[in-house]
Records
---
Amino acid sequence: MTPPTQTPADDLERIRESAARLGVQLDEEGALQWLAAIAADADDDDHIVHHESGTFGHRVTMLDFTPRDLERFRRIGEIVEVTGPEGVVEGALALSGSAAQSKIQSFPGDCDYFQRLNIKADTREEACRIMADCMRAAARRTATGDPFQFLEGKLGSYPADCLHGGAARKKGSPITWTPAEIEAERIELTMSDGAVQTLTWQEAALDPGWCKLDWVVADPARKALSNASNVIDVTWEAPDGEIVPLDGYLDAYFQEVYLDADSMPTFAKVAAFVNDDALDEYVDRLEEEVRKYLTKQLNYGKAAKRMYNIFRLSGRHLDAAYVRELFDEPATILYQVWSLISTLDNATQPGTSIPIDSVRDQTDTLMLQVIDMLEGDEEAEIVAALLTLRRTLEDQNAGERRTSDVEAAQNRVMNLVNTFFREKLEGVPTIREYIVAMQSAADKS
């Protein structure tokens, strides 16, 4: 923790020194305001704040949010929101991830949403049935249209090691449902002994696990495509008023910006049942992800985003303020490029309703951004990969060549993303020590 005698101005000087040494552009006024605001609110018992735009969220989260693109996010929210019978199903839809940190992330990745879905029912089984019906209705309603395409849903967990759609799946991992499988309300699993087992949508809902729906969304006015997802935290409200999470864990509220102040009563009712140790548990879960992205699935960009949330919520405000500045660096646009390559792939799958002109526009925009930011061999390599990818994506029957070209383009971009974030993070001694500790912990586990 920062000593009490330190002022935000003193802290800023330390950040300024690190930024200058590592070649990071520093918004001194913005950093000073953030440090002062987070210090002033450190002992505030009111964890939820209202915002003039009609949004609300955790006091620290709201420091990083700006309503600049709020109307766009609300339009997409109308596509991804899960709804149900009035008086039975109530929800509170929020932005999460980089979309909720729009003040500092000039180049966000996907449009990530988080929804609290509270269901009033006599029994847990009835609540599970209603949840399954609501999720399926949302998927079918948005199966295809202008300007969106439903991609897949997650509901339930695999009951044993098996094959699903020709791919090996581990027992307990989330089940991914295609639009056709959701329509049919069943999947077929090939078990280890060769037997074929049918699992229905309603059966999977009895142990729902991670509930999530995914789309690709076009924005013609911006000439942009986005992957949009909604992670749904479903709770059952019993007749006695007790609220129980259907997946066994009630998510904390430390990274969401809720889009409609009218949903505050629903949020407040559900949040009252969040564990008293929710903050510590949330940080622990983020650190598990940091260890993964620093070792098994190397991605320093994803690690940096989670480290920022860990630092800002655990009192490491100087480290948080420095990482905060990295998200606005021109080089971080490559993180967006990496994410949008998957979006382009999703937008051109057979049967899509996304116009091919939108794919061309998005690819051309990415190339211009890369040209503007990079130079020399790095620029030439990534632009060449994007040009190849652009041609391949227009052929929906490209098969293995399509997969290869997508992976090649992403690998070229990810190498640069990892290099940038690794150099900038490890250049700060306190953050380097944290990274080493996380990697050592992963080695021992």
---
Amino acid sequence: MSNLRTEEFDINMGPHHPSTHGVCRLLLTMDGEKVVKVVPYIGYLHRAIEKICENRTYAMCIPILDRFEYVTAMSCNYVFSLAAERLSGIEVPERAEYLRVIMLELNRIASHLIFFGTTAMDIGALTPFLYALREREYIMDLFEMTCGQRLTYNYIRVGGVSKDIPNEFTPKCRETVATISDKVEEYKRLLNGNPIWKMRTIGVGKLDADLALAYGVSGPILRASGVDYDLRRDDPYSIYDRFDYNIPIYQNGDVYDRYMIRLDEIQESCKIVAQALDQIEDGPIRAKVSPNFKPAAGETYTRIENSRGEMGVYLVSDGTKKPFRVKARGGSYPHLQLLPEIATNCMIADLVAIFASFDVILPEVDR
């Protein structure tokens, strides 16, 4: 046995690989099935969204930024609109604020359902994926009922929202969040006691708080490593201070905790939506804003709590109807940078689970 020698070899995982959740290429140095080194390669999806926005009016930027992070496109609409409103001093009507929160939290739920289903499927469980898409369809129905779209919405606009909700929206929305909240408990019963699931997730891909902060990690991944930080509470925006909800925190920073925290966040978002439906009152849904309005010259960095962490827009106005500079920030980019730090010296099957638990969306990286 002393003469036994292994030889390392390189292998490409992606860019066209279902477990990379988009067109991401991972160059793996392998020793058998053990990952010795992993290097992410990006750039296969670059579309120059930021530069395109600099050649459009502010209103024309909204549908373009829908594609920035299409799994939670409402957030893309919102963060740009909020930045433009802060530059212009535009006051958003109260009903519009409630409608925005309802749509943002419904979209957060839809995103976490996609995470739950795809992560389980990557690890080898197909049934959760079918369940998650089933529940997500209820939310897509609500979006289609409101704005006619199911993926990219162009709904949240500078000054408010494009349309009011129809009469049938409120009862259907109440039914949806109640159903999804119950289904989350079913998801936990389905997976949490499964010995294969526990073996594949508990203690795998551990991320400590110091490393997470050093890499600029945010959102559920940061909170799964024990850092109690959520922009909705710690850098308040909109009307989130009017709602009673918890910020789930876990301590181990492994694949299991990153999975659990998103299920808990689904239930907290259901609470927020239910309270918003109780509190919303009649009124205007949009401030009077010209399609070619010109904010005063200035700059702002505006950030919100997206389903993948901090989403921000750095916006510079030169006083014309087009932005002088647009720079977007998504949570996926720093999360992808972490992969070489915590996915080495693991099995290739564990790498798939770790990558899935980061919930990276490639358009947010290649913007």
